[in-house]
């Protein structure tokens, strides 16, 4: 009895296989379904944004979307070119990046340190976790008046607001990553003679790394959100300062330019974190989609 008689699905699958010549002259089999995967992914990922811009342009040209409500893509591009030529946009981006990264560094360091203490020891959990769970439910925007009273109206309250906003996502994810390490791995490490420090360094922290990188991505996104609010506190420079000035003069084109800058900055830092995931998590095979 042949295999086709045993499993009719085998015959169907073999019909969908096409022979393809290899470089060494041998004929190799290639699934027919692979032919639909020839379009580069970066092209497919740009289809959505390009479609939105085309719809936006069509609505602006036809008058469906008046310029008083929202400037068209051509006007926005012209305003962006003018801001770049004058150097205003570059200076604003540098100032905003410095604020966001400073706040993330401070808040992230505090969040990770507290998560490690809380995750590794029950005493740390009892002392740290309850206050952190209470504080994370307080809206960060509601703390702006207190931050102004404590730190004045300079750079300190802006950075402090970003630090507060970014500390909690990292704390929650690192803590969950530590407590989510498989107990059997801990027992295996002890069987191999690893002490407490060895377990933490070789088992627990590597196991918590995927969650930590997810928390970093969340914190980076929240950092830009907090930056928008922070730059409304008597700012004299930054992307938020450009938006505030444009709001006063109803310049929707400049506002859209600033929003696009925020989005591109967020996309750039997210790509950096994705690259870190590929580097540090290369040992962990994961599902990448079909």
UniProtKB/TrEMBL annotation:
Its main location: membrane. It comes from the Bacteria. Signal peptide: none annotated. The keyword Cell membrane applies. The chain crosses the membrane at residues 104-123, 135-153, 159-178, 222-242, 254-273. PANTHER family: ALIPHATIC SULFONATES TRANSPORT PERMEASE PROTEIN SSUC-RELATED (PTHR30151:SF38), ALKANE SULFONATE ABC TRANSPORTER-RELATED, MEMBRANE SUBUNIT (PTHR30151). This is ABC transporter permease subunit. It comes from Paracoccus methylovorus.
